[in-house]
Each structure stands twice: as structure tokens, then as C-alpha cells.
Write a structure and sequence with these properties.
Chain B: Belongs to the iron-sulfur cluster assembly SufBD family. The structure holds two protein chains of two kinds. Chain A is built from six helices and 22 strands. By secondary structure, chain A is α/β, with parallel strands linked by helices. Chain A has two domains: about 300 residues, no CATH class; about 50 residues, no CATH class. Chain B has one domain. Classes of the chains: A alpha/beta, B alpha/beta.
């Protein structure tokens, strides 16, 4: 580790500097680090992040109630990195396991900066476990962060035993200039099905380095959807490994970026077994000085014959200063595969606008309609009906 | 599935297929001592009788190179290269100047005959059968580091076109070389371009004056012959306003069990309404069946569309080299200028290719098209790496990119790494990539109509590459099709 990066690292970690060694030659990734080329973290340099103080229970309660959450079977609330037991409840079929020592980075996420940071400063999060053959319904997890110069590093794990099912709505919000660095470790055993919806509505001044690592067993399914709409510098990183045959993963997302903010969706879909499928649709709408980043990699191992992978990434630029950087990547070592990716970047289609205008729709309204139509197709990929409605309400102009 | 297993079997057989151009020519060589230092750079410059400004330019490049490190981001692996263990200057010994073919070593001429390059002017009319009109091609042949013969110069001169070895251009047209050399690929652009700038010994120079349509195809054949030499050629093509030129480049090297370095730099400058078409059929020695030997092909190619409505089109068929590291790029600086990149990259055996393009849109109404076809067989790895960047001023910029990969056998890899950067809302960028194998249906269809497995695969692969091959000038298209067959020989059917 060079001295400079060590200093930067010390500055970031502050209270847990001794654990920095976990990151090896760490330091804050710069533009020169390939994985962070479009999302460099220098702006976080030199901030002495403090541990976030406990929040007043009444405030937290008010904020959670204000969310208008869909009807759910369980609720877990975290405020400034602390579990709020009195506001949380779980269905009987589920148990919350004790938080172990667990400062190790799970192998799937090895070498990834966000995971290393989480490992170094880890705070115990939810330990959800759904027993075999059980459908645990919809669980909502709310993480609220408030304050300036504070950071949280929650570590959650979600384990579904054989044939178990769960829909998890992961809502993140807050106010202030904070840093959140949550990690979710997911394990779907054979035939288990997790539908994981992340609603990222962090403060528009916050930095966020979130990472999910999911392993999926035979005929299992990890279906992920992210709505990225907050944070001044926010990356959602999703790493899924299809480790059993005939398993499936979807890594879909919507990014809505305005102001001078940057939202990043980075994903790695690793086909490590034969006969698996993966689907990815990422749509970004960039306005004002917003910057969107999409980095998606599909890796197909030599043994993963009969892989079927598809990835689509589209961006709509609504202003002169908006920017989009995409890097859809295929790395393929098996020959009997069907993999494709597509990417488009552009403004609203003038022909479509003209069509609506010629039918008497006002220009502004026509633009809204087209943006909403663009987003709607992606939200419709969420299977859970009431969640779909919930997400639609979160979109601009209430589609 | 029989077809698949047969295909795999055949892949293993592939290594036994012959590299047709693997002969060595016994020509007396004049070699500089091994190693690279300022003295070698001075020696090269002195041997080329270069003016002082050229030597200064080289030394500047050499000093920059000493401070640079080899790029490591490409998906290629190779043992460290010892830059001191090579000759940086090799020249076939000549009795006199290279201007007359009669004085060239007959052994050399036989080499070109073997390559099928009709160097003699009377043989230059390479008629395409049935085409009616015969197409002349002017050839500049570069043997190791030195240009040995340039044909048709008189005809070209009448049209005002300058086509000569760059070493000659440095002496005879210093104003042009000074004005453009290093403007598209700056000396310290990257490790290999800096190395090239320091030690390049020859290459081709083309200048097409305003309003001139070059009366014939221009062509250069590069051959690395001597052992332990690197080839560092430098090509500079300038097309003035409304000028048009089509340039072909072919490459071969003898079979050797050590690796040889090839680090060329090609610069294209297209002014207003000019059109430069640059076609490459790269067939350097790829190494033997165990991955031993072969050429390391680390090439920097870049063109700038300086004037409005200028157009640069790169077409490449890459079948050779142990390692290919090459990204022919276009800087679209003129309003309404057009950049094109058509590529077929075939890797087999232990070959590795990391190739693609960069399209940098700087001006309004610029358009670019990228069509990249990648075929991996044997134990090879092939990567398409490309960048499309739309700068804020590139209003109404358009890009279409299509990358298709075909895998033959389960020991190879095919990768696609596109970078798409958009800084302006009026652009439209479309990117598509697919990876697949030869479909059983297509094979079955051909087989049921009486084609052998090998013919069927040949047909399918040629169909797969058609969009690119049709961009090649006719003579090259025929050659490229044959090359594809040879490269994949034994890998199928």
C-alpha cells in the first residue's frame, strides 16, 4: 500500500484503521482502477467518518410510517446502523439468527472494495433464515440514516433453505451527508426463490457503496430489482453466482439521476453451472447534470454449457449536460451458449413525441408519458403485484 | 451430437495445419547489435541518413519510452519481453539502392513470388477474372525493417500522389512529414507507440493532394524475416481535401520458435471531404501447436477526420500472430465526418487477440459504424474491446456497433468489452453483441445438401464474416476468404 492511499484509507476508516489490512493494497479506488473508472471515490477522501449516533425512536417510527409500505408479513428496521427491535417483527416461520463474528469477506465478493470496506467496519444487520419448503411472504427491511459525516456498514445475510420462498423489499433512505456501505449475503439453496427488491432513496447528499453477493443452487432463483434514485455518489453492486444447474437470476434495475448526482449499477453474473439462465434489463433516465453508470459482466465458465444469458441496457438522456457511461461485458469460455447484450443511449424519440403531439398532447406531458413508458416496462418485471404498485408510486409523476 | 464432437476432434487436428508462409529467405542481412539504447537510436537515424530534427524526435520518443511501462489491461498473457534481446535494425544487404528491382537480391524477389505478390510491374495487373476492367495495384514491400521496392511510382507521380518509403519521405518531403508525423499518435501516446517512434526504420508514406482520386490501390507487404528482429514500421497517410485513397496492408513472417515483436504505428489524416480506406490482412506467424513462437503484434493505428465530411474506414482480417493487441481508431473532429471499423479476428491454437476500436466523436453530425466478428477455436482467447465516446459538442452523433463471436470447441474463450460514453443528449448509440456456436441446424442444412462438414463450416464462417469481407477490395476479399479457410483448417469437419 502506498503511503498516500494508506492515509486516505485511515481517513476513511478512522475508528477501525487497524482492520484496513483486510483490504491488502487498498486505499480509495481512483479512476485508474478499472472497476471504478466511471465512479471514482476521491471525493470521499479526507472525510473523518464517525460512527452514526443512535436516533430517537419516535423519529424513526414517524419516518417508517411515512413510507406507505405495501402490506407485509414482517418488518425489520435499522436506524443509523442499529437494529430497532421495538419497530420490527417477523413471521413465526422465520428465525433471526445470532450475529457471529463474521468479519471475513465471503469468497464471492473477494477483492471488491465495497465488500472489503464492509468487512473492516462491519455492523451486525439482519440474519434471515427461511426453512425448507416455506413461503415467508413479503418482508420489508428499512434502513434509515441521518447525520453528516457519519457512516454505517450493515451486514445482512439472507438464507433460503431448499424450496423456500421469500420476497424482500429493502428500503434505504436518510437525510444528510453520510456514507452507507451495506452488504447483503444471499444464499438460495436448491429450488429456493428469493425476490429481492432494493429501493435506494438515500439523501441526495449521501455516498453509498452497497454490495450484494448471491449464490444460487440447483433450480434456484435469485430475482433482483434495484430502483436507484438517491445518493450523490451511489453504487449498487450485485454479484450473483449460478452455482447449481438449471438455476436462474435476474438482475434488473432502474436508475433515475438528476441534479449533479451519480448513480451506478455494477453487476457480475457468473454462470458456474450448466443449463442456467440469466436476464438483465437496466434502464437509466438522466436529467440535469446527472451521470449514470452501468457496468455489467456476464462470465460463463467452461463447464457452464447451455448457458442462456441476455443483458439489455438502455439510457435516456433528457438534458444537454447529462452523461451515461456503460460497459456491458461478456467473458465466455463455453462454446454451447447463447449470450447477447445490447445497449442504447439516446434522447426521446422525436417520432413518438410527434405522434403524441399530433394527437393534442402537450409537449411536456408527452415527454412525461414517454419517460414513464420507458420505465414501466422494467417495473413490470417485478412479479409481486403490490410491490409493483408500490414501486410505481415511487417513480416521478406516479406512472 | 456428432457434429460437435467431430468439430472438437478437428480442433485438435488444427495444430497440424500448415502455416503456408513459414519459409525463411536466405538473404544476407545487415544487423545492428542487439539491445536498445540511445546509441542504437542514433545508429538507426544515421543509417537512414536522417536530418537532425528526425533524430531529435526519435530521442524524445526514446526518453519518453524509458519512463513508461508496458500496458497490462488487455486480456493477454505472455512471458515478460526482454527489449534488450533483439536487433532493432535489420536490413537486407544490397549492392546498391533499392530503386531498381533488378538490383534487389533475387532471393528476395523469390520470397515475394512465394507470397504471391506480383512485384514486377508487368505482373502488376492483377485482373480479377470476369471483372473486365483490370485493376492495377502499387506495392511498397517492406522486408524486415526496410522498404525494398515500390512500384508504379511514376504513374502515381503523374497524378500527384506521393507513395514512397517513409525513410525517403523524411529526406525528400520533410515539410509534409514534419507537419503530420506524430500528430495523430503522439510519441508518448502509449508504450509501444513510443518504442516505435524511437526505433522505426521504415514504412510507407502516402500523400494524396487536393481533389485527387488515387488512380490505383496502394499496397504494402510487410515481412519479418531475420531472426531476433523486431519489426517497427511507421505508416503515414495524408489525404487532402476531396482526395480519395485505398490502402492495403499484408503481413507475413517465417516460422520460428521464439517470439518476435512487431510494434507498428499507422497514422491517417483525412481533410475535408477526403476518404481513406485502410485494409489489413494480417497473417503473421501464429506460433506452433504448443503455442511456441509466433509474432507479438502490438500495433497502434489511428486516423483523424480533420476536415468536415471526411471519412476513414478501417477493415481488418486478423488471422495470424501469437498475440494481437490492436485498436484501429478514428477521431471524428470534422463536422459530419464518418468513421468505420470492420473486423474479422480469427484465433486458433494458442493465439490470443485483444482487438477492437475507438470512435471518438468530437464534432456535430459525426457517424461511426463498428462491425466486429470474432471466431475462436482451439485453445485461443479472443477479446473485442472498444470505446465509443460522444463528447458534448458531438451533437446528433450516431454510432452503431455490432460484435458477434463464434466459438468452435470448448477450450477457447470469447470476450466482449465495450465502453460506451455519452456526454450529450442528442446522440444515438446502439450496441449489440452476441456469442454463439455454429448452429446444428445450419450445419445439418448444408450437410443434407451434400457439403462435407469442413465445407459446411467454411460456408457458415464466411457467411458469418460477410459483412466485413465485403468491405475489402476485391483482390483482398478473395485472399481473406482463403485465409479464413486456412486458419480454421482442421478445426472443423
Amino acid at each position: 500500500m502506498s503511503e498516500n492511499s494508506a492515509a486516505a484509507w485511515q481517513a476513511l476508516t478512522g475508528r477501525a484503521g487497524e482492520r484496513a489490512a483486510l483490504l491488502g493494497a487498498g486505499g480509495l479506488p481512483t479512476r485508474r482502477v478499472e472497476a471504478w473508472h466511471y465512479t471514482p471515490l476521491q471525493s470521499l477522501n479526507g472525510i473523518a467518518w464517525q460512527e452514526a449516533p443512535a436516533l430517537d425512536a419516535a423519529t424513526v417510527k414517524r419516518r417508517v410510517e411515512g413510507l406507505n409500505l405495501p402490506e407485509h408479513d414482517g418488518l425489520l428496521v435499522f436506524a443509523n446502523g442499529r437494529f430497532c427491535k421495538e419497530l420490527s417483527h417477523l413471521p413465526d416461520c422465520m428465525d433471526v439468527q445470532e450475529y457471529g463474528d463474521g468479519s471475513a469477506v465471503q469468497p464471492l465478493l473477494a477483492g471488491r472494495f465495497s465488500a472489503g470496506l464492509n468487512a473492516a467496519l462491519r455492523q451486525p444487520g439482519a440474519r434471515l433464515h427461511v426453512p425448507a419448503g416455506t413461503d415467508a411472504g413479503l418482508i420489508v427491511m428499512v434502513s434509515l440514516t441521518e447525520g453528516d459525516g457519519v457512516s454505517t456498514h450493515l451486514h445482512h445475510s439472507v438464507t433460503l433453505d431448499e424450496g423456500a420462498q421469500l420476497t424482500l423489499l429493502d428500503v434505504q433512505l436518510g437525510t444528510g451527508q453520510y456514507l452507507t456501505n451495506p452488504q447483503v449475503d444471499v444464499h438460495c439453496a436448491d429450488k429456493a426463490h428469493l425476490s429481492h427488491i432494493t429501493q435506494q432513496a438515500e439523501s441526495h447528499e449521501a455516498a453509498r457503496l452497497a454490495i450484494v453477493g448471491a449464490r444460487v443452487g440447483e433450480r434456484g432463483n435469485y430475482d433482483s430489482f434495484t430502483l436507484n434514485q438517491g445518493g450523490v455518489l451511489a453504487r449498487q453492486e450485485v454479484v450473483t453466482q449460478l452455482s447449481g444447474p438449471f438455476s436462474n437470476t435476474n438482475v434488473n434495475a432502474i436508475q433515475l439521476v438528476d441534479g449533479a448526482r451519480l448513480n451506478d449499477l455494477s453487476s457480475m453474473i457468473h454462470h458456474a453451472s450448466p443449463d442456467c439462465t440469466s436476464r438483465q434489463t437496466v434502464r437509466s433516465v438522466l436529467s440535469e447534470n446527472g451521470q449514470g453508470v452501468f457496468q455489467g459482466k456476464i462470465l460463463v465458465d467452461r463447464i457452464a454449457q447451455k448457458t442462456d444469458g441476455y443483458q439489455m441496457n438502455q439510457a435516456l438522456l433528457l438534458s444537454e449536460k447529462a452523461q451515461m457511461n456503460s460497459k456491458p461485458e461478456l467473458e465466455i469460455y463455453a462454446d454451447d451458449v447463447k449470450c447477447s447484450h445490447g445497449a442504447t443511449v439516446g434522447a426521446l424519440d422525436e417520432d413518438q413525441l410527434f405522434y403524441l403531439r399530433s394527437r393534442g398532447v402537450q409537449e411536456e406531458q408527452a415527454r412525461d408519458m414517454l419517460v414513464q413508458a420507458f420505465l414501466l416496462e422494467t417495473v413490470e418485471l417485478v412479479e409481486h403485484e403490490s410491490l409493483r404498485d408500490y414501486l410505481l408510486k415511487a417513480l416521478p409523476g406516479h406512472v | 451430437m456428432p457434429a460437435v464432437s467431430e468439430t472438437r476432434e478437428a480442433v485438435e487436428k488444427l495444430a497440424r495445419s500448415n502455416y503456408e508462409w513459414g519459409f525463411e529467405t536466405n538473404v544476407e542481412m545487415d544487423l545492428a547489435p542487439k539491445g536498445l539504447n540511445e546509441d542504437i537510436v542514433r545508429l538507426i537515424s544515421a543509417r537512414k541518413k536522417e536530418p537532425q530534427w528526425m533524430l531529435d524526435w526519435r530521442l524524445k520518443a526514446f526518453r519518453a519510452w524509458q519512463d513508461m511501462s508496458e500496458p497490462d489491461w488487455a486480456k493477454i498473457r505472455h512471458p515478460p519481453i526482454d527489449y534488450q534481446d533483439a536487433h532493432y535494425f535489420a536490413q537486407p544487404k544490397k549492392k546498391s539502392g533499392p530503386k531498381s528491382l533488378d538490383e534487389v537480391d533475387p532471393e528476395l524477389l523469390r520470397t515475394y513470388e512465394k507470397l504471391g505478390i506480383p512485384l514486377h510491374e508487368q505482373e502488376m495487373l492483377v485482373g480479377v477474372e470476369g471483372a473486365g476492367q483490370k485493376t492495377p495495384v502499387a506495392v511498397d514491400a517492406v522486408f524486415d525493417s526496410v522498404s525494398v521496392a515500390t512500384t508504379f511510382r511514376k504513374t502515381l507521380a503523374e497524378a500527384g500522389v506521393i507513395f514512397c518509403p517513409i525513410s525517403e519521405a523524411i529526406i525528400e518531403h520533410p515539410e509534409l512529414v514534419k507537419k503530420y508525423l506524430g500528430t495523430v499518435v503522439p510519441v508518448a501516446d502509449n508504450f509501444f507507440s513510443a518504442l516505435n517512434s524511437a526505433v522505426f526504420t521504415d514504412g510507407s508514406f502516402v500523400y494524396v493532394p487536393k481533389g485527387v482520386r488515387c488512380p490505383m490501390e496502394l499496397s504494402t507487404y510487410f515481412r519479418i524475416n531475420a531472426r531476433n528482429t523486431g519489426q517497427f514500421e511507421r505508416t503515414l497517410i495524408i489525404a487532402e481535401d476531396q482526395a480519395t485513397v485505398s490502402y492495403l496492408e499484408g503481413c507475413t513472417a517465417p516460422q520460428r520458435d521464439e517470439n518476435q515483436l512487431h510494434a507498428a504505428v499507422v497514422e491517417l489524416v483525412a481533410m475535408e471531404d477526403a476518404f481513406i480506406k485502410y485494409s489489413t490482412v494480417q497473417n503473421w506467424y501464429p506460433g506452433d501447436e504448443n503455442g511456441k513462437g509466433g509474432i507479438y503484434n502490438f500495433v497502434t493505428k489511428r486516423g483523424i477526420c480533420k476536415g468536415d465530411r471526411a471519412r476513414i474506414s478501417w477493415t481488418q482480417v486478423e488471422t495470424g500472430s501469437a498475440i494481437t493487441w490492436k485498436y484501429p481508431s478514428c477521431i471524428l473532429a470534422g463536422k459530419g465526418s464518418v468513421g468505420e471499423f470492420y473486423s474479422v479476428a480469427v484465433t486458433n491454437g494458442h493465439q490470443q487477440a485483444d482487438t477492437g476500436t475507438k470512435m471518438i466523436h468530437l464534432a456535430p453530425d459525426t457517424r461511426s459504424t463498428i462491425v466486429a466478428k470474432t471466431i475462436s477455436a482451439g485453445q485461443s482467447d479472443s477479446t473485442y474491446r472498444g470505446l465509443v465516446r460522444m463528447q458534448p459538442k458531438a451533437r446528433n452523433g450516431r454510432n452503431f456497433t455490432q460484435c458477434d463471436s463464434l466459438l468452435i470447441g470448448d477450450q477457447c474463450g470469447a470476450h466482449t468489452v465495450p465502453y460506451i460514453e455519452s456526454r450529450n443528449m442528442s446522440v444515438r448509440i446502439e450496441h449489440e453483441a452476441t456469442t454463439s456456436k455454429i448452429s446444428e441446424d445450419q450445419l445439418f442444412y448444408c450437410r443434407s445438401r451434400g457439403f462435407s462438414e469442413e465445407e459446411a463450416v467454411g460456408l457458415i464462417v464466411n457467411g458469418f464474416c460477410r459483412e466485413v469481407l465485403k468491405e475489402l477490395p476485391m483482390e483482398f476479399a478473395v485472399e481473406a476468404q482463403k485465409l479464413l479457410q486456412i486458419s480454421l483448417e482442421g478445426s472443423v469437419g
